[in-house]
TrEMBL record:
The gene is LOC104211722. Residues 4-88 form the Reverse transcriptase zinc-binding domain. It comes from the Eukaryota. This is Uncharacterized protein LOC104211722. It comes from Nicotiana sylvestris. The lineage of its organism: Eukaryota, Viridiplantae, Streptophyta, Embryophyta, Tracheophyta. InterPro entries: RVT-Znf (IPR026960).
Amino acid sequence: MKTFSIKDVYLKNRGEFSKVSWRRIIWNNARLSKWIFMIYLAAHRRLQIRDRLKRWGCVEDDSCPLCNAEAETMNHLFFVCPFSKIIWVTMLRWLKIVRPVMDWEHELQWAEQHCRGRSAAAEIYRMILVGSIYYIWQERSAKVFQEIQRTAETITRSLAQDIHCRGNVKKCLKRKLIELNSYPTV
């Protein structure tokens, strides 16, 4: 060996891994790090939702705390629950995206296909995807641990404000955010 490279040793020890298809949705965007952490856990299915806790024997009731209608699964909590669906429909309409709310797998596939580029619309959609997951999880946690729940309109307003604050830092998003210069309506 004529030369030594720490990078080569690191890569050799780490091994080779295939890149996950949703990596672009999570990394290298204008989102808050706590949003990124939350979607990272969700994408790896590591959130402590009630169906998972019930399988471990930690809880007996696996009903969704936001609607109390069905079992709390990842798909139900973030996309099927009537409370979450209101948030999604409102944010999609705000972005002028005309399509129904899909389940977790299809939502990620749609984002990978339609929002992988660097356009302002793609960037803002990715921010909405990650921010919605974060806000729905926060609302679920507030309902479980503090027994308080905000309205869907309050959550969509907070999300829109966060997107405007984070997006105005990037010059390429300013023009698109000017078009979205109103609160989403529920």
